[in-house]
């Protein structure tokens, strides 16, 4: 509204100048002296000069308004239009300052750069950015070194590091990679008010805020997929190849909502090291190096939680009976013992996770066996044909026949007792055991495939088991 008033004032001044000049011209008639004629000519020159100056000022104002407020209006962020001082020198200085800032951004690679905007390669393959979440760990260098080392294509896998906290030493480490990555910085570093009893969980509130902002910022470019990596993860040599081979599944099968590089029960003692190509469906959201689609983010972003986003995403209202893909052998491993979770599970489980050292050409493998109908018709049917054994028989290798076996559980306590004996993680999230699919947890033990499974007439997950 104020910008319209400004333009009206300028238009009025221009009109008034011309009208005044016209009246003077008509009123002088033919009886002017030579001095009067010269004065009139001089006034006319002044009027034309002022008119040109007004037009220049008008153009500057319009250009200023475009630069300063057009983007503001398009993004619908404004509530009140800022006041504008109609002073030519101030407008000119603002325009020059903005041009200088743009030149600095182009010339100085240490300044934050824009996220790459190419969303598809010339061959039709999608550009899949790696979104690395960072805060105040200078050890982010371990993660970034891995990603840069194994990345097969800078164009297809741009690395975007999103930093929260404003920690300068960490920022310096990130910027040291130059044009190998793009740094974006979470702008809202304000404190978050929480209830006194939740003060110790404030870090989880800040993480959720960071995730929401960074995913919005990245997906708004137009990417179809984003791979999320935390700053305390190492990745396997075929990390990128793994997602190249699986990303199409998320578009083909609406019952899938993520692909994860992580196996919660991926300790060396309970995985088959000879089968690095083996992948599974799981109802448990694994995280720790995972891919989601723009469509899923559009669904989740409108109700994104204020804290504990990973537990929230595992709730039935969000999961909606959808599954993820996870590997037999993890393609990520965490080295971050210190963090908001204070090393929870790290010494007992996480530091023992095996990181795959093989390179599997996942993009050359037919992945259709992981589509829901195919998977259920084979995996679920086969599991319940395997013989039931006890833990003692498995441990002492007293099973006569070779091949996979099944250990059955019917209660929560039975499941927890068995997982502790087997060295598996025993907790539940929203009633779902880690790595489970239809309640079945698959692992490798004493050179044998084992399925810890409920009764064949399983009715679904029980929230009370959490």
TrEMBL record:
Pfam families: GNT-I. Its main location: cytoplasm. GO terms for cellular component: Golgi medial cisterna; Golgi membrane; perinuclear region of cytoplasm. It is found in: Cytoplasm, Perinuclear region; Golgi apparatus membrane. One of its GO terms (biological process) is adult locomotory behavior. Its cofactor is Mn(2+). It comes from the Eukaryota. Pathway: Protein modification; protein glycosylation. The chain crosses the membrane at residues 7-25. It catalyses: N(4)-(alpha-D-Man-(1->3)-[alpha-D-Man-(1->3)-[alpha-D-Man-(1->6)]-alpha-D-Man-(1->6)]-beta-D-Man-(1->4)-beta-D-GlcNAc-(1->4)-beta-D-GlcNAc)-L-asparaginyl-[protein] (N-glucan mannose isomer 5A1,2) + UDP-N-acetyl-alpha-D-glucosamine = N(4)-{beta-D-GlcNAc-(1->2)-alpha-D-Man-(1->3)-[alpha-D-Man-(1->3)-[alpha-D-Man-(1->6)]-alpha-D-Man-(1->6)]-beta-D-Man-(1->4)-beta-D-GlcNAc-(1->4)-beta-D-GlcNAc}-L-asparaginyl-[protein] + UDP + H(+). InterPro entries: Glyco_trans_13, Glycosyltransferase_13, Nucleotide-diphossugar_trans. It is a single-pass type II membrane protein. GO terms for molecular function: alpha-1,3-mannosylglycoprotein 2-beta-N-acetylglucosaminyltransferase activity; manganese ion binding. The cofactor is mostly bound to the substrate. Its EC number is 2.4.1.101. Keywords: Cytoplasm, Disulfide bond, Glycosyltransferase, Golgi apparatus, Manganese, Membrane, Metal-binding, Signal-anchor, Transferase, Transmembrane, Transmembrane helix. It is an enzyme of class 2 (transferase). Belongs to the glycosyltransferase 13 family. Initiates complex N-linked carbohydrate formation. Essential for the conversion of high-mannose to hybrid and complex N-glycans. This is Alpha-1,3-mannosyl-glycoprotein 2-beta-N-acetylglucosaminyltransferase. It comes from Drosophila willistoni. The lineage of its organism: Eukaryota, Metazoa, Ecdysozoa, Arthropoda, Hexapoda.
